Amino acid sequence: AGVEALPQRPPNLCAGCPHRATYFAVKKVFGNDAVYSSDIGCYTLGILPPLSAADFLVCMGSSVSAGSGVSRASGQTVVGFIGDSTFFHSGLTGLVNAVFNKHDLLLVVLDNHTTAMTGHQPHPGVEKTLHGDNSVRLDVATVCKGLGVPVVEQVNPLHHKKTLEILEKMKAQRGVRVLIAREPCPLHARRIYGAKPTRVAYVADTCDQCGECLDTLACPAFHKMSGKVEINPLLCAGCMLCLQVCSHIKARKLEAK
Length: 257
Hints:
By secondary structure, the chain is α/β, with parallel strands linked by helices. It folds into 2 domains: 18-192, Thiamin diphosphate (ThDP)-binding fold, Pyr/PP domains (Rossmann fold); 199-253, Alpha-Beta Plaits (2-Layer Sandwich), CATH 3.30.70. 32% of the residues lie in helices and 19% in strands. It has 8 helices and 11 strands. The protein has a 5-stranded parallel β-sheet, with helices on both faces. It is globular, with a radius of gyration of 19 Å. It starts with 17 loop residues before the first helix and ends with a strand. The model has no long low-confidence stretch (mean pLDDT 94).
């Protein structure tokens, strides 16, 4: 007897991952009006649909260096994505070169306060290490300004409307500019700060089952049960991005334990 084809299960960003919020906002503002360069980290998963936020990925730091080259060769705006740990590891020299050559590059630093992909190792920009507070912490925004970046903005990507406003402004600008999307990885926040969700999202009965939440956000807490979209409360991290995207999604408080 033939065996039915197994459903595809591509790797996905975690529920509540702030990178999803950043990618979603950037694609909403820039759409096909930019070339997207990516880098090495959890956020590499943004290359997959439905986010599809990467046109190429070469190596660590290539979001800046290769992105700068593509900007010059194509004449198009390049939006590059790089994590905070990769920024300190391999992004600084490329950023200096981009500033020096006046490339048209928007670099989005996905600052989740840790090196999440490989086990939450500390880097120069973290607030805490295994030995306690990081007394020599380097601030990403201060470093960028010190390297001569003329435009540096910061935003919490889970504040969707504010993120869109800043991106619209930066889309109209030219030259090197940096947007720091700063929100801790929820796994890291739970381990280091003891942070826990106080509420979770659910799909209201008014939902018209359009499926846009599944097709655009692709949060793994969402699933279809008996033809209806539902949110698994055990997977929901309480980031509340989906509430800002769809009026049929509501929030409920979690009972204190």
